[in-house]
Amino acid sequence: MSRSGNEFYNKLSILVEEGDETLFWLELLAKAGLVLMKQLEKIMHEAVEIIKITPTARKNIQTN
To answer: What pTM does this model have?
Structure first.
């Protein structure tokens, strides 16, 4: 894998970590009663989808 491929792989890894952290904070906001879960559902769904897609992108980078 080239340097740019390695860098892209690392950035995708950071994306997964940041997505997980985002979900954590959104859930914390809902549990604290600062925001209604109903208001967070759409953005949480989007974060989960990004987290699901990213490992496939990383795997494709490794095989190329």
So the answer is: 0.75
Alpha helix (H) ranges present in the chain?
3-31, 37-63
- Per-residue burial over 18-57, b if 16 or more Cβ lie within 10 Å, else e, is ebeebbeebeeebeeeeeeeeebeeebeebeeebeebeee
Q: Interhelix angle for 3-31 vs 37-63, to 10°?
A: 160
6-19 pLDDT, tens per residue?
888 899 999 999 99
> What does the alpha-carbon distance between residue 21 and residue 7 come to, in Å, rounded to a whole number?
21
52 Cβ contact list (under 8 Å, min separation 6): none
Q: What is the dihedral of CA 34, 42, 9, 59, to 10 degrees?
A: 130
Domain segments of the chain: what residues?
Answer: 3-63
